[in-house]
């Protein structure tokens, strides 16, 4: 989990593999994808809740737009997809290319002819890694890649967002043998749709997913704190997880927030590092506002137009409205 959680997150963040719970998707018209943080909790219907892996690495390449509300797990889904592809020895397309569009929008807008290979090399320069000459281009032309492009909506300027969307379309045409997956919030996607893309709506967490995440998170945290993962640690983790789940069962207003992975992560962190949950939903909103209004933007290097005092005033006022 990246550094975009609540202020009470603590010093340790679990490895993705240890806490990840499958983010499910389903085909949907983009205008019908909910925009709010909290959606209605639904049953785990296999026909309406599918794994992204079902749509990629098929005989016919896919162009997918994964659309969901803030905090619904879009970025984490791409990171886990890239990780899983790396672990598969016999995948049809075994090279994941994960790029965050916010890091490359300036170059794309300035030079719409720039290709994915150039962006990948530019990204690798940060880690002082050089790819063998022509390696990525050959893989792309051979159809061996799954191109994962995160955050179309994070391109703030609408004209720039459309330019990036058109650029994606050009890359799909140029490297048509590969899978392409692009993520966005609903509002951002509606103003800059990607040509030929099948829209997949991110589904909210079910009750079972919430339970699994809470238990996995506590197992990872308690094992780290103790330095071991023995039976005593697992029992302590289970007790803490069950305590949180019991508190949520008794606080319906907070339980409704658990359908959103980011909000659920906030709740688990607050319970772990404060030893309790707020009794009212509004008492949790301070943490939520802090994350959604500025801490996530700072982590993602978004330019903030509000002064700090104005952001703080909005955070102080919002729980009472």
UniProtKB/TrEMBL annotation:
It comes from Saccharothrix longispora. PROSITE patterns: NACHT. This is NACHT family NTPase. InterPro entries: AAA+_ATPase, NACHT_NTPase, P-loop_NTPase. SMART domains: AAA. Residues 62-186 form the NACHT domain.
């Amino acid at each position: 989990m990246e550094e975009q959680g609540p202020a009470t997150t603590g010093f340790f963040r679990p490895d993705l593999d240890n806490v990840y719970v499958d983010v499910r998707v389903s085909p949907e018209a983009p205008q019908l994808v909910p925009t709010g943080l909290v959606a209605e909790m639904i049953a785990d219907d296999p026909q309406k809740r599918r794994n992204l892996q079902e749509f990629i690495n098929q005989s016919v390449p896919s162009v997918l737009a994964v659309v969901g509300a803030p905090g619904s797990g879009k970025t984490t889904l791409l990171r886990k997809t890239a990780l899983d592809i790396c672990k598969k020895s016999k995948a049809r397309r075994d090279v994941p290319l994960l790029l965050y569009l916010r890091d490359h929008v300036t170059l794309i807008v300035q030079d719409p002819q720039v290709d994915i290979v150039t962006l990948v090399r530019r990204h690798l320069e940060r880690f002082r890694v050089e790819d063998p000459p022509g390696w990525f281009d050959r893989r792309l032309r051979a159809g061996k890649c799954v191109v994962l492009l995160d955050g179309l909506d994070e391109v703030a300027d609408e004209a720039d967002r459309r330019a990036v969307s058109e650029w994606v379309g050009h890359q799909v045409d140029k490297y048509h043998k590969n899978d392409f997956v692009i993520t966005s919030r609903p509002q951002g996607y509606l103003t800059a749709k990607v040509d030929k893309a099948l829209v997949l709506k991110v589904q909210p967490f079910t009750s079972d997913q919430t339970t699994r995440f809470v238990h996995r998170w506590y197992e990872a945290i308690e094992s780290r704190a103790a330095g071991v993962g023995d039976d005593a640690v697992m029992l302590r983790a289970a007790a803490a997880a069950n305590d949180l789940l019991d508190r949520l069962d008794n606080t319906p207003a907070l339980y409704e927030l658990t359908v959103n992975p980011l909000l659920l992560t906030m709740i688990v962190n607050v319970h772990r590092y404060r030893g309790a949950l707020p009794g009212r939903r509004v008492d949790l909103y301070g943490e939520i506002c802090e994350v959604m209004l500025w801490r996530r933007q700072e982590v993602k290097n978004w330019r903030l137009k509000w002064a700090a005092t104005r952001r703080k005033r909005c955070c102080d006022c919002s729980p009472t409205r």
